[in-house]
């Protein structure tokens, strides 16, 4: 990945996974409301009353393809349940969108175990930063060291708070600052984030 003088990757801490997923979804909605072209994936959890864990799905922002990325290993399974093949297929969706579209923002559910191991959305993140496309995602405590090793000075890790996240987005998309409503929103967001 190329070096930058700013932080094109903004990763919110995933201390509360459900709250982090809500903020990722909110950022997607916020970006779309401003007319920003977004690509990536969001996570959808499906509660199972007969299982210890939820079913985890990745939903492609572009194609609306949905990938069930958690394997069902039985009622009391507690170990890693990731279906790496389906994560790879979701990642190919994102990489294809980055190659063929004109996105202004990459939104990802998280930098997690698959990315730590060199797979998952890692290539998509590198492609986005090479193309000067900002990246917004979450990162869990156990994956934070790997993210910092991977992205170094390109990443800003922040608390899971929506106002500073929105301010980061606005500061990295100056081409949309000419929208009259945006100037007011940007002033408010930046003032609160200070």
SS element count, helices: 7
H/E series: EHEEEHEHHEHEHH
* End-to-end C-alpha gap: 29 Å
Unreliable sequence segments: 1-5, 175-194
Radius of gyration: 17 Å
Structure classification: alpha/beta
What does this entry look like structurally?
The protein has 194 residues and is of the alpha/beta class. 41% of the residues lie in helices and 18% in strands. It has seven helices and seven strands; from the N terminus they run βαβββαβααβαβαα. Strand 2 and strand 3 form a beta hairpin. The longest helix is centred in the N-terminal third of the chain and has 17 residues, at 17-33.
Topology overview:
Layout: E1 9-13, H1 17-33, E2 38-46, E3 55-60, E4 66-68, H2 84-100, E5 105-107, H3 113-116, H4 122-130, E6 135-139, H5 144-151, E7 155-158, H6 162-171, H7 180-193
Helix pairs in contact: 1-6, 2-4, 6-7
Q: Which structural traits does this protein have?
A:
single chain, 194 residues, alpha/beta, seven-stranded mixed sheet, 7 helices, disordered N terminus, disordered C terminus
């Amino acid at each position: 990945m190329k070096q930058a003088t700013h932080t094109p990757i903004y990763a919110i801490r995933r201390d509360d996974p459900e709250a982090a997923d809500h903020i990722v979804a909110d950022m997607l909605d916020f970006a779309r409301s401003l007319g920003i072209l977004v690509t990536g994936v969001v996570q959808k959890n499906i509660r199972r009353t007969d299982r210890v864990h939820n079913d985890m799905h990745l939903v492609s922002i572009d194609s609306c393809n949905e990938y069930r990325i958690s394997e069902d290993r039985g009622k009391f399974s507690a170990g890693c349940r990731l279906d790496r093949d389906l994560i790879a297929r979701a990642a190919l969706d994102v990489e294809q969108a980055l190659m063929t579209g004109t996105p202004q923002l990459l939104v990802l559910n998280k930098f997690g175990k698959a990315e730590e191991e060199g797979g998952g959305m890692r290539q998509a993140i590198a492609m986005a930063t090479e193309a000067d496309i900002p990246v917004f995602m979450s990162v869990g405590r156990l994956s934070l060291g790997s993210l910092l090793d991977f992205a170094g000075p390109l990443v800003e890790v922040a608390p899971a708070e929506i106002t500073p996240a929105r301010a980061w987005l606005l500061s990295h998309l100056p081409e949309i600052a000419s929208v009259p409503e945006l100037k007011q929103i940007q002033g408010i967001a930046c003032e609160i984030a200070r």
